[in-house]
């Protein structure tokens, strides 16, 4: 306790002793705090805040690849990029594809994840941790690597999936080159890879539901379905919301799957908004690309907001 | 009760009035319930799911040691008839995979160490020190928590180009050292460190930095490990930014190399691609299997928090 005096010796008489060292210590702690925060804050400002702001700036300019070294010497063109994006049939198709992908893959992912979590939480499973690890393993894999594997699995002539379908007399389609089947193939891959993430979180959420609520429900004579709807789902809402938001954000940006498996084809059937942003960037249309990325950002924000409205806990 | 490892969390009912005698019966009952028709059906369904989940990965490894002719055989052979490592030797001789592997390791390690340290530092300041600007900084970080890479990569590329960092490790590393999610995670964990512990250190004359490295960091070991693993996984699998930021082949990371190679060839050599995929996926799967408890718990708690 006596060591507190090793703060800088307060100048002035004993009258100020109570107040000056206190403020000096506060100031010193403030410096220390900013010292801790400095490395992060500098990098954060340069590599996050600046690009987010610059993205908005670029969206309103005619910046192209040639302006790379002089990003400030470009013309403001108002909303032209946004208009060009929304009226471009290719972007419209990409937007439609993205909605299709999210609209099908997200409910599928969450539904299967919830089913698996409920099964694992039933207390009847033989090797729960084996199942849990097995279902989670695809989550840690690189999308690029597993997209290569799935391209091989879906190969029409000697791929495993069509070979298996052949055994039961079904003539499997040319998955990735058929405009009808290409998107379902990508959805299959996405669901396969992402179910484990939501399942693990939902399982933890299920385990957090007090057991006596279930006992009370069974005393009241509620069946399994009724219990699930009246006890499980309401208490799981916040967890479900988290999974829905995370999955929605990831799926709205889907890019690697079409990049590796279909290059957006056939006939643009698997082109996504994120892929279109990448393509416009590749063509050197930086302004247009930035405008499209802001549209995607708005879509992400809207989807997250809707999910919050839909799944927020009811009082 | 102690000898039943099967349902770990489900039987953790509070030691109430009636558990003393009933819990023994309940576990015995549980064991019998594990072989009712309902349990058999349920486990059967889970097994089908497990095969679907792990099947593609097993198939990847098995096929990667088949020669190209066997890979293209119909019907496919389940077990490789003619085991060969040719796909791997080709991968390493012709495609410079050791270089890509090295790049991936360097980038992932640097990002992990840097991001975890910086996140812990700023997380500590935000959780435990009252300083001017604290609230504003925290809100700003939270606001960017959900900004996806798809939004920032174009201006980020312009920035990196003007800093003359294209085709450097710095371009692959620096943008990921400022990780809002890591800050959020560290702050949440550091809020739980008792203030008395920190006060005691200060009373003993330890400065803020000493307190941080001697007291705070050891206290947050599990959180640091969780964040470290998640950061490493994210960096190892990262694709869009390395694809944009690096244009010369000697700087490619593994996913970029595999993606460009797989889309760039005219006749697909599946053996090579599968060997490449195996090289990317296997180290991560091994890390995952060793640390699975920590990874899964980490994911689960971040979801619940």
UniProtKB/TrEMBL annotation, chain A:
Region (Disordered): 1-23
Intracellular or extracellular location(s): Cell membrane
Annotated keywords: Cell membrane, Membrane, Transmembrane, Transmembrane helix, Transport
Coiled coil: none
Domain ABC transmembrane type-1 residues, every copy: 95-307
Pfam families: BPD_transp_1
Cross-referenced PANTHER family: ABC TRANSPORTER PERMEASE PROTEIN, INNER MEMBRANE ABC TRANSPORTER PERMEASE PROTEIN YCJO
Record family assignment: Belongs to the binding-protein-dependent transport system permease family.
Protein's name according to its UniProt entry: Sugar ABC transporter permease
UniProtKB/TrEMBL annotation, chain B:
Transmembrane parts of this sequence: 40-62, 100-126, 138-163, 169-190, 211-233, 270-291
Bilayer disposition of the protein: Multi-pass membrane protein
Organism of provenance: Isoptericola chiayiensis
Gene3D superfamilies: MetI-like
Top-level taxon: Bacteria
Pfam families to which the protein is assigned, alphabetical: BPD_transp_1
InterPro entries per record: MetI-like (IPR000515), MetI-like_sf (IPR035906)
Biased composition (Low complexity): 9-21
Family of this protein: Belongs to the binding-protein-dependent transport system permease family.
Subcellular location: Cell membrane
Keyword Transmembrane helix set for record: yes
Domain ABC transmembrane type-1 as annotated: residue spans: 101-291
UniProt entry keywords in alphabetical sequence: Cell membrane, Membrane, Transmembrane, Transmembrane helix, Transport
Protein name: Carbohydrate ABC transporter permease
Span list, region Disordered: 1-29
